[in-house]
Amino acid sequence: MRSVRTWLFGVTVAAASALSLSAQAQPASNGQQIYETRCKACHEGGAARAPSRADLGQRAPGDIVQALTNGIMQPMAQGLSDADKQAVAAYLTSATSSASLPARPTGQEMPQVAIKGGVVGTDPKCASNPPIAAGVGDWASMGVDDASTRFQRHPGLTAADVPKLKVKWAFSMTGGGQPAVVGDWMWITNRSGKFYALDTKTGCVHWSVDDLVSRTTPMVIKSPISPSGWLTVVSQSDRIVRAFDAQTGKEIWKSAQIENHPFSVLTGSPVIVDDRLIVPISSIEEAAAMSKAYSCCTFRGAVAALDLKTGKLLWKTPMITGPVKPIRDKEGGGKVQGPAGAAVWAAPSVDRKRGLVYVVTGDSYTDVDTDGDDAIVALDIKTGAVKWRRQVTEHDNFVMGCGPTSASGNCPTPMGPDYDFGATPVLMTLKGGKQVLVAGQKSGIVYGIDPDSGKLIWKTQVGMGSALGGVEWGIGANATHVFVPISDLVYLFNPRPDAPKGKAGLYALDPATGAIDWSAPAPVAPCHYAADKDKPSRCARAQPAAPAVIPGFVFEGGMDGWIRAYDDKTGKIVWEDSTTARSYDTVNGIKGQPGGGIDGMGPTIAGGMMFITSGNNGAARVGSNGVNVLLAYSVDGK
To answer: Which residue, 184, 157, 183, is CA-closest to 635?
Structure first.
């Protein structure tokens, strides 16, 4: 399952699966009845990927309805009426939906945007929209470079600046991915359906698009096909890709749906290579399999290439080949079928020298063996042809909701560990010029692969691994090390005194051998989650977020809300800040917006500033507030 990463960004993969997996018609009913019959078992039963009832209560009602109606959860809401969705949202958020509305700031009229449990904020429009001007240290894509190293070579920060970082401004939004930055402009997606272009210095809004649900990082390039000369491209959750003039927000083109499976989604950020856009394709079918009425499974992960000028499909390559065939009949009708799965959750990395893109795949959904799941795959950029494939975990057959009481009839036998890949592989150049492709898996294992042949060079067990990591959202690298954050979330709260506690923390590996050169266990530190209200929070030290690397330092956040800078040679913490230690008065008019866990694609560093989302970056799990606060750090907050 993807790293479930739980992601799904609508209500989260797990939240959504439990909340709306009612792929069956539902008579008119109240929200509490729907919740208790369809949701309670996961959200109050300790399901690993499901946020607690308290976490769901921190979400805005409109966020839940949006996710089920127009967002990534739309396929999962089949059979639910609008009234059903609204009733569930109202029941889940009843404790927060009566929050008072803030006064509208004086000045020009600004559009409203629902945030923070029903509180309404305002989008502060910029007084002017100066031309986009590239800087030497722009971060214009998810991985900052073709190799997806997440290494910012020109951060605009010195070693003396890093310990002085303080929050300059905050922007509250319902969800939000990792921002892209060029000059003083920033672009960030939003699961509520808003795609923003912001000013990096103040957080004011240059423009926004109000019908774009996504969790991906926009890619921004100079391009003659855009009137301003700057183009931004975003993949939407509903399998559509759109291109905009990055200066004005005017749409340049909109693709057709690049995948027709009803449970397919776009979760990984696209990458641009010359005249084409490479798009990974994933799905939430493993959540749909929780329904007894659903005949699992038929989705197959894929990678597609679109023409950058028009958005037209050039090629699409499935990660599993061969026909779908029936496995067994289900009690009450329907069939289990396969092979299926191998979702491509993460962005590709690019190897222009070899003319390849590298992707990693998720688990299998059925009992039928396939070599396409839990694999590292090299594809020809021009044709989509598979050049090599390296499967690292066999028989990882997994769908959600399986256990002693499962009645779906879709559970594979035996069940796999859900050790799929959710982190983009990183291409590294070693001393002497030899290259190695490094990939981190939820199993906690990191692999070094020969990019010419796909042969295994080394593998290192870094974390203990589980369905929630191990390695979840990403790894980073500089010239000498690959930096590996470890989540190991499921081990942190095991009450048994003899139970393993996992290896949550940050690790530096030698890319030539896989040897661990240093380790920095996640510190035990205080935090306060809004969902816990006045009681002490069980702070999750897990570190699933992707890192950001600059000369001399590695930045990594944790689900306890702490963001830290580590010395890249020793692992010593040289700066840290708790995003849950304070509330924020945001530039878009929300008073007292709380911070929360850091989980997802991690920081963006550009132009002497660092940008990170706190509260619910990757998944509504531990530390979720249901609403993100985008934090902008600068030296002394100036």
So the answer is: 157
For 594-623, what is each residue's pLDDT tens digit? 888 898 889 999 999 999 999 864 444 566
Q: H/E/C letters for each residue in 328-379?
A: EECCCCCEEEECCECCCCCCCEEECCCCEEEEECCCECCCCCCCCCCEEEEE
From the list 425, 427, 255, the residue with the least C-alpha distance to 347 is 425
526 CB-side CA count, 13 A: 5
Give the per-residue pLDDT at 44.
64
Per the document, the length of the chain is 638
Q: Give the integer Cα–Cα distance in Å for 290 and 414.
A: 16
What distance in Å separates the CA atoms of residue 98 and residue 364, rounded to the nearest whole number? 43
Cβ neighbours for 72, distance < 8 A, ≥ 6 positions apart: 8, 9, 10, 16, 191, 213, 215, 237, 238, 265, 284
Q: What is the mean pLDDT of the chain?
A: 86
pLDDT at 9: 34
Residue 49, both tokens: 């990927």
| Of 136, 6, 23, residue with least CA distance to 76 | 23
Retrieve residue 384's tokens: 């989509």
CA nearest to 34, candidates 95, 98, 77: 77
What pTM was computed for the model?
Answer: 0.89
Distance of CA 338 to the CA centre of its chain: 27
Query: 254 near 312, Cβ under 8 Å?
Result: no
Task: State the distance between the two ends of the chain, measured CA to CA, in whole angstroms.
Answer: 43
pLDDT, residue 68, reads 67
Residue 165's pLDDT band, with cuts at 50, 70 and 90, is: very high
Q: Are 445 and 456 in contact (CB under 8 A)?
A: no
Residues in contact with 266: Cβ distance below 8 Å, sequence separation at least 6, in sequence order:
214, 216, 235, 236, 237, 238, 239, 240, 241, 258, 279, 280, 281, 282
Rg of the chain in Å (alpha carbons): 22
Structure tokens at 475: 């790894």
Could you give the angle at the alpha carbon of 214 between the alpha carbons of 232 and 437, nearest 5°? 75
Which residues, in sequence order, are CB contacts of 380 under 8 Å at separation 6+?
Answer: 355, 356, 386, 387
- The kind and range of the H/E element at 41 are helix 40-43
Cα separation, 225 vs 163, in Å, equals 42
Give residues with Cβ within 8 angstroms of 494, minimum separation 6: 500, 501
Cβ-Cβ contacts under 8 Å for 180 (sequence gap 6 or more): 139, 140, 141, 142, 186, 187, 188, 217, 218, 219, 220, 232, 604
Residues 390, 439: Cα–Cα separation, whole Å: 11
Mean pLDDT over 524-548 rounds to 83
Which helix (H) or strand (E) covers residue 53, if one does?
helix 53-57
